[in-house]
Every structure is written in structure tokens, then in C-alpha cells.
Amino acid sequence: MADHNDFGKIAEDLAVEHLIKNGYKILVRNFRFKKNEIDIIAEKDNLIIIAEVKARSTDTFMLPHEAVTKTKIKSIVSAANHYLEEFNKDNEVRFDIISVLPDSNRNLMIDHIADAFEALDAN
């Protein structure tokens, strides 16, 4: 399999393809604010979708979405707030996680968790 950075880029490209195929409009990729980064900012049904892409070569230790910590959530929310202010957006925002993980045949599988931060808070 590709090295870490290549695999991350492949995962983000797959996530973008998945979103476009499902009717999302991609607004920005790799939006940065200070040290924070948002992988994908998209729009669908008048919602701004902030998507964090997590990829793992195996689920032996944890599922990809389990790597999104409270600290990571805070940094994504901070960057999202900056994006909304900078581009004068007043749309409702949803935070999603898109996990990319190979199956037993090494095909990359996508799991799109909508409203993921809300789901994480429930746990």
C-alpha cells in the first residue's frame, strides 16, 4: 500500500468523489486557519458540510473515525468558524467524518458518518 501521505491523499480524493457522486458541491479542500485544517468543505441542501477524512490501512487498533479526538474536534470547529466568518456564510453547519479503510480484498471502503460530532458527543 502507499506510504502514509499518499494514502491520506488517496483517501481524501475518494471522499471527494463520494461526496460529488452523492450530490454535494465541493467548496474547498484543505482549508487552513492557523494550525487547524479542514479536509473538505462542501455544500448540500443549503447546509455547509465540514468533512474530516480519516484513513487507516487496518482496523486492528481502532476504526478510522475513532481517531477524531475532542482536541481535533475543537480545532476543526475553530477553523470552521473562521471559514464561515471569512466567506460570510450563514448556512447551518454539519460536521461529518468520512472513514476510508481497506476490506479483506484490499478494496478501499468508505463510511460516511453524517453529523458525526453529535454522534461522538452521545458516547
TrEMBL record:
This is UPF0102 protein HNP24_003586. It comes from Chryseobacterium sediminis. InterPro entries: Restrct_endonuc-II-like, tRNA_endonuc-like_dom_sf, UPF0102_YraN-like. GO terms for molecular function: endonuclease activity. Keywords: Endonuclease, Hydrolase, Nuclease. Gene3D superfamilies: 3.40.1350.10. SUPFAM superfamilies: Restriction endonuclease-like. Belongs to the UPF0102 family.
